[in-house]
Amino acid sequence: MNTEIHSVEVSLELGHPRDVSARAELVDVMGIASGERQSHFWVCTAAGHMMNGKAASAADAILRADAIAPQHVRNRPIARNLVDDLRSTDRHARPEEIRRLAGHMKLG
Fold first, then answer.
1. CA distance linking residue 30 with residue 40, whole number of Å
2. Residue 102: its pLDDT value, please?
3. What angle do CA 79, 12, 94 make, to 5 degrees?
4. CA distance linking residue 57 with residue 48, whole number of Å
5. Which of 8, 61, 71, 84 is the 20 to 30 A CA-CA neighbour of 102?
6. pTM higher than 0.90 for the full model?
7. Rg of the chain over CA atoms, in angstroms?
8. Is there a contact between 97 and 59 (Cβ–Cβ < 8 Å)?
9. Chain centroid to CA 53: how far?
10. How many C-beta neighbours within 10 Å does residue 28 have?
């Protein structure tokens, strides 16, 4: 399972957003026992969606990560940047939840 999560992260780090999405689809998220690992997966997936121009999917994924393990999401630079970007777009249907998350993150 960790190998699949790492492949998602590596694709993100290499700047291959299509690979992030494709590899994320192969991960059995329910099989991940650790909340920290699940939230990490969802943050990486959210970033990949945003890079692919899919703000709605990115919002869903980052909110899912925060619901699972907020202590592992709210101080991560990648998550903070993503939430900040999502706040400035109207291409998703969850603006109130994103604003609330930005408030928890103490984003200006």
1. 14
2. 98
3. 40
4. 10
5. 8
6. yes
7. 13
8. yes
9. 13
10. 8
User: Per the structure block, which two tokens stand in for 13?
Assistant: 């780090």
CA-to-CA distance for 37 and 31, rounded, in angstroms? 11
**Residue the block writes with tokens 């990949």:** 48
Please give the structure tokens belonging to residue 100: 């609330």
- Residue type for 59, please? A
Give the DSSP letter of residue 73: T
The predicted pLDDT at position 69 comes to 98
Dist. CA 32–CA 93, nearest whole Å: 28
Report residue 94 as tokens: 């969850």
Rounded Cα distance between 8 and 100, Å, is 27
